[in-house]
Amino acid sequence: MNENHAAPSHFIRQLIQADLDANRHPQGITTRFPPEPNGYLHIGHAKSICLNFGIAREFSGRCFLRFDDTNPDRESPEFVSAIKQDVQWLGFDWEDRLRHASDYFEQLYGFAVELIKAGHAFVCDLSAEEIRTTRGTLTTPGSNSPFRDRSAEENLDLFSRMRDGEFAEGSRVLRAKIDMSSPNIHLRDPALYRIRYQTHHNTGDQWCIYPMYDFTHPLSDAIEGVTHSLCTLEFEDNRALYDWVLEHVSAPARPYQTEFSRLSLEYTVVSKRLLTALVSQQVVSGWDDPRMPTLSGMRRRGFPPEAIVDFCGRIGVTRNQQNVELSVLENCVREALDPSVPRAFSVLRPLKVVIENYPDDQEEHFVAQNHPNDASLGERHVPFCRELFIEQDDFMENPPGKFFRLAPGREVRLRYAYLVTCTDVIHDENGNVAEVRCTYDPETRGGNAPDGRKVKGTIHWVSAKHAQDATVRLYEPLFNDPEPKFSSEDNLADILNPNSCVTIEQAKIEPSLVSAKPGACFQFERLGYFCVDPTSTEVTPVFNRAVSLRDTWQRVKNQ
RNA sequence: UGGGGUGUAGCCAAGUGGUAAGGCACCGGAUUUUGAUUCCGGCAUUCCCAGGUUCGAAUCCUGGCACCCCAGCCA
Question: Where do runs of H (alpha helix) occur along A399-459?
Answer without folding.
Answer: none
